[in-house]
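Summary for the steering committee. The consortium agreed at its last meeting that each partner would contribute one worked example illustrating the joint modelling workflow. Our contribution is presented below. We chose a case with several input lines so that the handling of multiple components could be demonstrated. No manual editing was applied between input and output; the record is shown as generated.
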Amino acid sequence: MSHDDSERPATGDLFQYANAVGERAYQAAKGLALASRFAKDEWLRRCAERLRQSTEAVLRANARDLELAQHYGMNAAAIDRLRLTPARLESLATAVEKIALLDDPIGESFEKSVRPNGLAIHRVRVPLGVVFFIYESRPNVTIDAAAICVKSGNAVILRGGKEAFHSNRALYELLRDALLDAGLPADAVQLLETTDRAAVGHFLAMSDKIAVTIPRGGKSLIERVAREAKMPVIKHYDGICHVYVDKSADLEMARDIIVNSKCQRPGVCNAAECLLVHADIAAQFLPLAAAALREHRVELRGCPRTLELISGCRLATPEDYRTEYLDLILSVRVVDSLEQAMEHIATNGSHHTDAIVTTDSEAARRFVSVVDSAAVVVNASTRFNDGGELGLGAEIGISTDKFHARGPCGLRELTSYKYVVEGSGQVRS
Amino acid sequence: MSHDDSERPATGDLFQYANAVGERAYQAAKGLALASRFAKDEWLRRCAERLRQSTEAVLRANARDLELAQHYGMNAAAIDRLRLTPARLESLATAVEKIALLDDPIGESFEKSVRPNGLAIHRVRVPLGVVFFIYESRPNVTIDAAAICVKSGNAVILRGGKEAFHSNRALYELLRDALLDAGLPADAVQLLETTDRAAVGHFLAMSDKIAVTIPRGGKSLIERVAREAKMPVIKHYDGICHVYVDKSADLEMARDIIVNSKCQRPGVCNAAECLLVHADIAAQFLPLAAAALREHRVELRGCPRTLELISGCRLATPEDYRTEYLDLILSVRVVDSLEQAMEHIATNGSHHTDAIVTTDSEAARRFVSVVDSAAVVVNASTRFNDGGELGLGAEIGISTDKFHARGPCGLRELTSYKYVVEGSGQVRS
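What follows is the complete predicted structure of the assembly.
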């Protein structure tokens, strides 16, 4: 808390401060909505340039955060996410340049039609307005989120974790300078000068200024935001992802897919947490899979039938099947049918990402239509449920909601539309 | 209140009742999500058939509501909306048959792509789940809303106004019988057996079962729902709609458009409430428009410059320009430029429907891109912002939100999607 307080703005009046930030963002959003693609891409290119030029200043600020990290009791993994390096800054600059190459979603025209009375109708994509983005202590996200919001025509209010305060401020300064370079409203990107949690409450009440709040971080943060927010929230809850190996599966393919789904990056939401295996091939497949998974030091927790087929496997509790381990642990269950596998997923899963491995196209078709997840995957790793991998170019998060946006949220998912109706004097009779 | 209480279910335990309704809807939605287009359309055809067969029973129930209407202090217009007639029932049956002819949005595949690694990606449209629909005392809406929800694969919980209680129950019975005819889950449509307002609160808290709440009715109802709901809400606020007559307008076309926008049905949200006229043509246009509007008994309230050009016009107050009259009253203002007209709309409008009448394509282009409304209209009546007129086939409301759905909400606007990823063993490196 003492660190929090030291960063609180001098005014002391958080409510007034929050309102001023919200109003500036709202006004900036109006200008940004009409900005040309050229100006937005120019901003992105200037950001990349300034990232490369300011490497030393950013690393100095980051060093200060790293010094303070132990005061916050951060563990090694969290400190690693906080750390910036010349290589990481270069890859950020490259990512920003790639966003400049993506199509501008704003102004896209779709669902065109001409009505019998001659009215020409279409929808035109427009920005949502102001995004309030709350995120963990990963300074690279400051750049990513600002780039995605501004490219999609939205102003953004960034509220980063306190542990990244100095890094974020250094990055924010270059984002802002680049806005001026490109002739865009300087308040299109704002970084909160306070990490006081009470400030968040003021923003969550500002439904007249803020179009959407996107919280990234732990479940308790997302739950708090969903409870308090008076505007829509794009939520990102856990991923309890499954790989189901059907009786007709290519077993080597299935082995490679479960190993990749579990081990390629175990700490993320689209990593697999549970392996379901059809009883007909369990005796053949489980020893094969267990050997490969153990090479990656994966701990297995299985159902009684699993334990009969592989040794050194702990008995899974019902709780195991509902757990997002985010670690090298995998629950395993032998099922009697595709239907039982889908029932298991419906009961225990989190509607995030679920995969089937099969050579039976009817089984694949049924799995794809019945399983109610943001991404259903056939014969590939669950790790592909990601904005970059699905071709969105960039993503600001993976929505576990069905409303507005589901799955990875890229540029288009941060937009709305208007109807344009063009006539020649038509009236209704 | 005494009428309310007399309809309360015997159990007395509203919370338990609401939970049971929510759970039944949730289970029904799972079945409905997988229902074939044939079954859903068969249900619609059976509904139409049963509407025609049950005319007498429905009219008897409606007669009971009409008898009670005076107890509720309903005015003539409200009683007219409550009244069913053989002709109105026939037009409802026809409307339902038309919905059966619309494309099924569920299962539609879109945004297909093949990634460089060979993964085939597309999105497939899926239902949202359960819709909680709260509406005014118009029994025809019971049929319309159920038809749109079920055709789009969603279960619906209907909460109609207490004044239409008996009519709604009679209509609900035939909807439910038709569900059984068509082999669909009987709980896909449920009508609340209580009109107790406290029950609404229980449903608004049920975010684990209900995907979206759609309130239709007065502003205070919508505000209450938006404040209390723990799930997304599709809101339908007021329409303060403008017609701007540019200096290059065809004046006779402009006259016909303002007359139609104001008078064709003054009590609805897409009727015009304000006429903006460019100063260069005001002296010519205003007398022409005033004469035509007065033939329709429209009361005019104008700015000082308007008063100089037409007689018998009251001075408009700032409040007039921010009022949704829903009546034969029109505010009028002379503006010096397109920019001033757009500024007036931004300051006073409600982002619903705004029209420009012009022969200048550059003025039209600028109006369309700057004015931030659900529908921007060029050279046509504001009354075209309607699901039927825009080609959606049917609508459940007109959203004044930007999130998820904007403008008229038809079948597609009641859906979400899932990503389908099809591979041949791909893993991430």
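Chain A touches chain B through 66 residues (CB under 8 Å). Confidence is low (pLDDT under 50) at residues 1-11 of chain A.
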